[in-house]
């Protein structure tokens, strides 16, 4: 039996999402089919609004509400503009914000270097970071990419790119297990990693 | 270390197996020997394959894990093969379980997932390898000498992963860095960077050079050390097996060789170079420098040309390279020496005897070698042998061993 086109196309769309295999995609699709009208309706509105109502902060590339030039962190007068923490994804900003232990600003790369996936420096917000540093206000850059092979490689790459500006570059300490994601780290581990950040010579 | 219990579900033709294993009786220096006897195609080798899988998490017979899933079971949309062992290591008991799960993907596909649990906790293969150790002897191991260099690297990797903590993790990270670097070299090649270096690599290649050299130098150092230790043990055994007529040497030839080229050139062919004095830093910085030197060539070829993924190991008997000029008998003796050395080396490194698995090896040895082999392995804690013919063993040996009958995937101890 062939599935009706509308179900099959939802399954295909779900399958393209990270972390969702064919099995969970079918399960989700059939769940939505059975669930009340509201569930599907809410989801479709939320999805449509996602792109329409969000934007990227023009300074740090964190997510922000549409129509705003800069995110809450960048706008806040309380944040220290001399320190910038470089992370892979906007979710990492959330994780670090939850600790309440960081008073500087952020820069979201929107990914990491990965030649296998065809991701090079031009696909990330690296030029933008270098431009921010070149402006001169920033005194310290904390490299907080994940402690993975690609996260480490990206940090090393950034370090060489920033060298000429004489800015103080540090790397988050290895309180984090190799292969662990910032996103899933508990707050204590994150705080320890932050306070134990190391000089990159 | 020794196995106490093995339980298999849907492993090849062994749809259901549950057996207790005997252990060596230390004061009497006897026991712990099991002979699996049966006609062809009854499942003897499969039992050893399953036990070895719990040590190496790969088969010695196939690179395709799904072949180990019972083929009737594999017809189900969701098929599960389960291997579980209770074993004793030193004073502690452990439970190790491996699951091969064939699950449906897309329209008609199936994908295999491996799950490893140590003492009930799901773990990554590279963190569990080395907890349960086994050494396997099989007739096809002549491939180590006769086959391509990848057979010898596989041999080294499987032995080192079991005995050197972190080896498996570093090797898997090295392979990851290698894949990233190869992808980048290919991309640079396609952009024509190789032809026109003025375009530059934009500093990206340096980052992967760094990872490759950092991880690669660690692997080279471990291999230098291990080959030297195994050589020492293997040449002693080989000397005894050949009654002093032959000298065996193992020549590790790293594709990135920290030895200075002047020194390499000054040596005669088939001389074994001693690299034991190299330190990690030295290998790493030399490797990095060499990567810079070959950069243009590597971009032009779009692939990494030096590093542990291209290492070679050669067996030299009386100054002659066995891979090229060895006789059958010489190869067999060398492999026997190599394997016996591996057992001893693992014991030295880990403080525990590995479980010894001998598949059908008696048949191809002469009487003297059979006696030699049984004398050596008799020292260990647990030995499992397979045979189609019990007459290959002496009556005393058979008397002191447990004889298990294997028939149509069922193991019967009542003999
Ligand atoms: N995935 C599988 N599912 C079911 N049966 C399998 C599978 N793979 C192999 N077999 C069967 O298992 C048997 C081979 O088992 P094994 O190699 O362990 O035999 P053996 O007793 O060692 O034989 P020999 O004396 O010939 O070496 C064959 O009959 C083969 O068809
Ligand atoms: Mg067999
Ligand atoms: Zn911002």
Helix content of chain A: 40-55%
Strand content of chain B: 15-25%
The largest sheet of chain A is: 5 strands, mixed
Structural class from helices and strands of chain B? Answer: alpha+beta
- Please give the order of strands in the largest beta sheet of chain A: 4-3-5-6-7
The count of domains of chain A is 2
Q: What gross morphology of chain B would you assign?
A: globular
Number of strands of chain A: 7
Widest sheet of chain B: strand order? 2-1-6-7-8-9
Distinct helical segment count of chain A:
8
Mean pLDDT of chain B: 92
* Spatial separation of the terminal alpha carbons of chain A: 63 Å
Low-confidence stretches of chain A: none
Question: What is the compact description of this entry?
Answer:
The complex is a heterodimer of chains A (201) and B (415). With 201 residues, chain A is an alpha/beta fold. Helices cover 43% and strands 14% of the residues of chain A.
Describe the overall structure.
The complex is a heterodimer of chains A (201) and B (415). With 201 residues, chain A is an alpha/beta fold. Chain A folds into two domains: 47 residues, RecR Domain 1 (Helicase, Ruva Protein, domain 3, Orthogonal Bundle); 122 residues, 3-Layer(aba) Sandwich (Dna Topoisomerase Vi A Subunit, Chain: A, domain 2). Helices cover 43% and strands 14% of the residues of chain A. Chain A contains eight helices and seven strands, in the order H-H-H-E-E-H-E-H-E-H-E-H-E-H-E. In chain A, the strands form two sheets. A five-stranded mixed sheet of chain A has the order 4-3-5-6-7. A two-stranded antiparallel ribbon of chain A has the order 1-2. In chain A, helix 1 crosses helix 2 and helix 5 packs across helix 8. Chain A is elongated and about 65 Å long. Chain A starts with a helix and ends with a strand. Chain B is an alpha+beta fold and 415 residues long. Chain B contains 13 helices and 17 strands. The mean pLDDT of chain B is 92. The interface between A and B is medium-sized, with 19 and 21 residues. The complex binds adenosine-5'-triphosphate, magnesium ion (MG) and zinc ion.
């Amino acid at each position: 039996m062939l599935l009706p086109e509308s179900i099959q196309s939802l399954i295909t769309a779900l399958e393209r999402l990270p972390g969702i295999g064919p099995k969970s995609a079918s399960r989700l699709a059939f769940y939505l089919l059975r669930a009340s009208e509201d569930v599907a309706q809410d989801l479709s509105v939320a999805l449509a609004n996602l792109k329409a109502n969000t934007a990227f902060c023009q300074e740090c590339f964190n997510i922000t509400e549409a129509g705003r030039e800069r995110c809450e962190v960048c706008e806040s007068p309380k944040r220290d503009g001399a320190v910038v923490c470089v992370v892979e994804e906007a979710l990492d900003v959330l994780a670090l914000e939850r600790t309440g232990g960081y008073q500087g600003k952020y820069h979201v790369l929107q990914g990491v270097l990965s030649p296998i996936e065809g991701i090079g420096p031009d696909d990330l917000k690296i030029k933008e970071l270098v431009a921010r540093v070149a402006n001169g206000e920033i005194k310290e850059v904390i490299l907080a990419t994940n402690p993975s092979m690609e996260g480490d490689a990206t940090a090393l790459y950034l370090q060489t790119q920033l060298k000429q500006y004489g800015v103080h570059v540090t790397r988050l300490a290895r309180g984090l297990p190799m292969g662990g994601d910032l996103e899933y780290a508990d707050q204590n581990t994150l705080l320890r990693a932050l306070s134990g950040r190391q000089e990159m010579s | 270390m020794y196995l106490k219990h093995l339980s298999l579900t849907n492993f090849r033709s062994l749809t259901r197996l549950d057996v207790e294993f005997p252990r060596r009786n230390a004061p009497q220096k006897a026991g712990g020997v099991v002979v699996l006897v049966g006609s062809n195609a009854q499942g003897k080798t499969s039992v050893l394959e399953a036990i070895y899988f719990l040590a190496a998490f790969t088969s010695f017979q196939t690179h395709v894990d799904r072949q180990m899933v019972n083929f009737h079971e594999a017809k189900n949309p969701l098929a599960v093969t389960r291997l579980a062992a209770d074993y004793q290591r030193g004073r502690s008991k452990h439970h190790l379980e491996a699951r091969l799960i064939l699950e449906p993907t897309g329209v008609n596909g199936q994908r295999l997932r491996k799950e490893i649990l140590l003492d009930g906790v799901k773990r990554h293969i590279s963190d569990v390898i080395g907890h349960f150790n086994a050494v396997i002897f099989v007739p096809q191991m002549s491939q180590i000498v006769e086959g391509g260099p990848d057979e010898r690297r596989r041999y080294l990797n499987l032995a080192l992963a079991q005995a050197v903590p972190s080896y498996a993790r570093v090797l898997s990270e090295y392979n990851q860095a290698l894949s990233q670097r190869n992808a980048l070299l290919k991309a640079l090649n396609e952009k024509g960077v190789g032809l026109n270096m003025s375009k530059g690599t934009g500093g990206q290649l340096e980052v992967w050079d760094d990872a490759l050299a950092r991880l690669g130098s660690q692997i080279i150092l471990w291999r230098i050390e291990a080959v030297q230790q195994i050589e020492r043990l293997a040449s002693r055994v080989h000397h005894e097996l050949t009654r002093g007529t032959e000298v065996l040497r193992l020549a590790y030839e790293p594709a990135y060789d920290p030895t200075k080229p002047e020194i390499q050139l000054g040596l005669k062919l088939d001389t074994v170079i001693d690299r034991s004095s190299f330190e990690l830093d030295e290998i790493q910085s030399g490797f990095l420098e060499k990567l810079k030197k070959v950069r243009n060539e590597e971009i032009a070829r779009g692939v990494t040309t030096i590093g542990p993924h291209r290492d070679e190991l050669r067996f030299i008997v009386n100054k002659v390279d066995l891979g090229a000029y060895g006789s059958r008998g010489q190869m067999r003796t060398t492999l026997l020496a190599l394997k016996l050395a591996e057992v001893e080396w693992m014991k030295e490194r880990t403080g525990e005897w590995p479980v010894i698995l001998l598949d059908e090896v008696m048949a191809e040895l002469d009487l003297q070698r059979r006696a030699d082999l049984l004398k050596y392995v008799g020292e260990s804690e647990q030995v499992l042998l397979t045979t189609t013919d019990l007459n290959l063993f002496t009556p005393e040996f058979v008397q002191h061993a447990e004889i298990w009958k294997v028939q149509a995937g069922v193991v019967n101890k009542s003999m």
